[in-house]
Amino acid sequence: MRMEIFIQRRQADWQQLETLVNRAKSSAETLSAADLYELGMLYRSATSDLAVAQRDFPGGQVTRYLNQLVARAHGLIYREEPLRRQQVRTFFTVTFPQLYRQLLPYTTISFLVFLIPALAAFAMVAADADRVYTFLGASANTEALVQTVEEGELWTDIAPSVRSAAAAAILTNNIGVMFMAFAGSATAGLFTLFILLINGLNIGGVFGLLQAHNMSGGLVEFVMAHGFIELSVIFLAGGCGLYVGEAIVRPGLLSRKDALVQRARLAVSLILGCVPLLVIAGIIEGFISPSGLPWIVKTAVGVGTGALLHFYWLKK
Question: Which of the two ends of the chain, N or C, has the fewest CB atoms closer than 10 A to its terminal CB?
Fold first, then answer.
C-alpha cells in the first residue's frame, strides 16, 4: 500500500483520536462516557495502524506521527490515576443527569403507558374483585394471592432473619425488569410498551384487589419507602427502550444502523448509571419496607429519596 493512500484512508480517525487526547488532557474540559468509549476504540485502531506503518514505512513521517500519538493516548489511558476513575466521577456528577434530561420526553411516555392502565385496572378490580383474574390470569399464583387477601393477610412481611436474602432477590428482580424494558428497543420499542403495560395492569389489579377488601393501605405503606426510586428507574429504562427503538422507525438523516449505534451507546450509559440506584432501592425494600418502623418514617424515606433523585436528575 502506498503511504499516501494509507494516510488518506486513516487520517480522519487519527485526527479524532488526537482531538480526544487533547480534550482529555485539558483541565477545562472532560470527556463524556461516549467519548471515553470512542477514545478506547480509536486507540486500539491507531496501534494497529502503527504496526502497519512500522512494517511498510519504517522511516516515514507518518510512522513517527503515529508513534507519538499512540504514546500520548497510552499515557492518558494507563496513567497512574486512571482516566476511567475521573470519567466515572464526571459521568455521575454531570453526564448522567444531562442524559436523563435529554430522554425526559421518552421517560414521560413510559410513565404514562404504565400509569394509565394501572389506574384503569385499579378502578375496575376495586369495583369487582373477580376482575383480578382478567388482569393477572387464572393461574395458581393468582388463586393463592386471592386466597391470602380474602384471609385478611398481606404477603409483604419479611422475617428479619431472611431480609438479606430477600434484598438480593428483590435487587435481581428489579434489575431484570429494567433490562427487559430496555431490551424491548430491539422490537422498535413494542416490547418495551408491552412490559410497561403489563406491569401497570398487574400492579393496578393487585392494588384494586386489596382496595376491594379494604387492605390497600398496608401495601401502600410497604412500597412507599422504596417505590419512588424503583419506579423512577423502571420508567427511565422504558424511556431508553423507546428512544433506541425509535431509531428503527425514524432514523432521521442517519442510516438505521448508525442511528441505532448512536442511540444505544447513550442509552446503555443511562442503564448502567441506574444500577446503583436499584441497589439502593433493593436495600430499602429488603430492610426498611418490611420493618416495624412507623408509616410516617417510611413515607419520609420514600418521598425524601425520590425528591433527592429527581433534584439530582433535573437540576442544571
Answer: C
Shared-domain flag, residues 64 and 105: no
Q: Is 219 left (phi over 0), alpha (psi -120 to 50) or beta?
A: alpha
Average model confidence (pLDDT) across the chain: 85
DSSP string, 129-198: GGGHHHHH-SSHHHHHHHHHHHTT--S----GGGHHHHHHHHHHHHHHHHHHHHHGGGGTTHHHHHHHHH
Category of 134 on φ-ψ map: left (φ > 0), alpha (ψ -120 to 50) or beta: alpha
CA 58 to chain CA centroid, Å, is 47
User: Does 90 reside within a domain?
Assistant: no
Same-domain status, 62 and 102: no
pTM as predicted: 0.70
Size (the chain), residues: 316
In this structure, how many other beta carbons lie within 10 angstroms of the beta carbon of residue 206? Answer: 23
Q: What is the pLDDT of residue 123?
A: 97
Short-list 304, 311, 268, 226, CA closest to 91:
268
User: Same domain for 20 and 76?
Assistant: yes
Residues 274, 125 share a domain: yes
Domain of 163, in residue numbers? 95-314
Q: What is the rounded distance in angstroms from the CA atom of residue 31 to the CA atom of residue 29?
A: 7
* 207 is a domain residue: yes
Domain C-terminal end among 18, 49, 80: 80
